[in-house]
Amino acid sequence: MKRALFGGLALALLLTGCGTQSSEAQIFAMNTFMTLTVHSPHAREDVKAATALINQLDRELSVTRPESEVWALNHADGNPVEVSSDTAALLKAALELGEKTSGALDVTLYPVVKAWGFTTDEHQVPGEETLSALLEGVDYSAVSLIEGEDGAAVTLPQGIELDFGALAKGYAGEVCADLLRDSGVTSALLRLGGNIQTIGARPDGKPWMIGVQDPSRPDDPDAVLGSLAIVDQAAVTSGGYQRYFEQGGVRYWHIIDPSTGSPARSGLSSVTIVADSGTLCDGLSTALFVMGREKALDFWRQEGGFEAVLVEDSGEVWITAGLSEAFTPAGESTYTLHIAEA
Amino acid sequence: MKQRSNRFWLWLLGALMVLSGAIAFWVFTRTAAGTTAVVTLDGREVCRVDLATLTEGYTVSYTGEGGITNVVEFAPGGVRVREADCPDQVCVRQGWIKTGVAPIVCLPNRLTIKITDGQPGQLDGLVR
After folding, report:
1. B89 touches chain A (CB under 8 A)
2. Could you report the predicted ipTM of this complex, rounded to two decimals?
3. Contacts of B52 (CB under 8 A, 6+ apart)
């Protein structure tokens, strides 16, 4: 009996001592705060590798760092610039999304965003003439990306400036997830600011439960519209409620409609996208916010490959059919739910 | 003799089980009731407050290397940034947090406030 007792104790110690560890890193990068949590037998090394990758992407893709590739592109005076595979891959995705969304996502909007002061927090409402002059230089299709065997080169016509702000965090989550999966990680949660990227399921095998912020109560992180059960996917929300300023009783937010150069007023207060690709989630959450509910749902029916939660200013919530099982509304919700059929 | 020895081990086992049960109960009730706020400045932990043991609120000011100051208010069950001289005021607008779903972050001052071991919420994260 004694032997059995000690045997059992020794076994219990062994079971708890080895196997999966959990490791977490908290980093400031890409102009936001990120928490990377990995559960694996080599979690510490995995988290280190993911952190290094994110810092590298931050250096390459930042629009404000003078050492970045984006900075080099924006200051090349129309000359071609050689870029890394990351910049090339992200630009390619951005241009494809621009094409698909008929310009609702445009990575050349940066001069307009600057004019509103969203890059410096010195906010102002630009005059109409200023905006229409700036809008003439906004055209993603004028960007030239030439990919060869030994690298890629990008040429921006003079006056055009790139900014990956609407995509970079989604892309970073996606490539980190690929890196972690390649090293054998089957359970990890990457919180990149308000973006979520998951790898596999939770350590207990259940789906990750991700809250969707209630856009009418943006100040309270405990106020959620509902929750999404997701496995091995990314989720990203865009809304006008987090970065904005008020002037003369009007609220101006940072999501700009490329066709007007002003904050997108489409009747939506937030858009959440769930998909395998974090880059797609990030880009489409912005583009569908610009489109408004009807166009957004038409786009979903035509393109597919993602699911969405659309919240209207009126309090109506539209959930695409593929999320009807995964979405659980919050208990005391004042919203009216609709399922959008394909 | 043999029987007495067996009885001794049984008693010892029983006593151990009761003791470990008591320790487990103490640990679990302690963490379930506790809501600890952890403040970091530029990635370094600068303060840890057990909010459950507070009977009244108080404030502490944190100034980072850039000279920005966040006035953090700790109160029974919650924590917030009461005022700050950062340009965006995002941290102030976030108001009180009571659970670990999303931390308060002041990017300009590189300050974070996170709640650990709060209610074991069902949410792993938040998209916003």
Report:
1. no
2. 0.84
3. B33, B34, B35, B76, B77
